[in-house]
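A protein record pairs a chain with a discrete description of its three-dimensional fold. The following entry can be read in just this way.
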Amino acid sequence: MTWNTWRSELILEYEIPKYDGDLGIPNFYIKLEEQYIRKRNNILLETFQSQKSKHWFDDATFNALLRLRGLESANMFAEAFYARKLFL
């Protein structure tokens, strides 16, 4: 529905770590400085209360994914997204 509703807008699809894997190969990376990681993680933990009971929903998982995407983008930490249409 997102693509139908906002056809001319920038839409970045974020990653969701799942039990069954299937992370995929993102095509858009944003370097993330260490000073912002704690704030980012706190926002995730506070916003998605329904996921709090999940064993994987913690700083360790979030940081691991940031570090892995950092490695892929030649940075220390990076947030990765899927960008189907990107206009510069």
Summary: Residues 34-47 form the longest helix (14 residues). The chain has one domain: 2-82. The mean pLDDT is 91.
